[in-house]
Design a protein that fits this description.
The chain is of the alpha+beta class and 229 residues long. The chain has 5 helices and 14 strands. Strand 7 (106-113) and strand 8 form a beta hairpin.
Amino acid sequence: MRRKIILVGAVIAVGIAIYLVSTLNLFSETSNGGQDAVSQATANRYQEKEIREYQGVQLDPAIGPRDNSISGIQQVDLNSYQLQLTGLVEKPVNYSYEQVLAKEPAQRLITLYCVEGWQATVLWEGVRITDLLADAGIKDDAAVVIFHCVDGYTTSMPLATIKDKDMLLAYSANGLPLPASMGFPFIVVAEDKLGYKWARWVNQIELSSDENYQGYWEKRGYANDATVN
C-alpha cells in the first residue's frame, strides 16, 4: 500500500512538473532585459524591427489582439488617398499622405485603453491636429471636431479637448509605419479617451458647431465623453 502511495505521488509530481514547463514555455522575457514577461501570443504580434522599449518603458505591440473594426481591416491606396479638412473652416484643404508627413513631427508615449478590457502602450509619431487645422483656418463658431474614416466610421471630440491635449494624428507606431490593422495611414491618438475615440483610417476632419454630434458607437449607447477613469 505504501509503495502504491509513493508511486501515485511520483506520478502527480511529474504531472506538475510537465504543467509548469509547458506554462513557462508560453512566456518570453521582454527586450528591456528585466523580469517582465509577455505571452507568446503577444510576442508574435511584434513586427520585425518594431521598437519594444522606450526610456525604460516596455512597449506593447502596435498590432492589437484582434480586429474590432466595423467593416474589417481597411487597405488604403495612397495613390488616390486624400485627407480632407472641411466644415467650419476658412478654406477647405486636401492633403496627400506625403504632405502630412512633411509637417513638423511630434512623438508621444501614450496608452490606448480599449472598452474590451485590453490596453496598449505605444510610441506614437505623427502631426499635431491643430497644425493641420491652422492651415484651413478655424471659424469662430467651430466647437467640435468630427473624424470620418474610410470604412464609414465616425466619432468626435470637442475642439477644446484636442487643443488642451495637443492631440496627434499618428502615422507611425513603435518606430514603424502604422500597421493597416491600427489605421494606416492615420489614427487619432485620443489621449485619455477610450479606444472608440481613436478613429482609424481617417480621411476627413470636419469642424462643426454641433456639440451633440454622435458617432458610430455613440449612437449605439456609448458615452460621448469617453474619458478613461
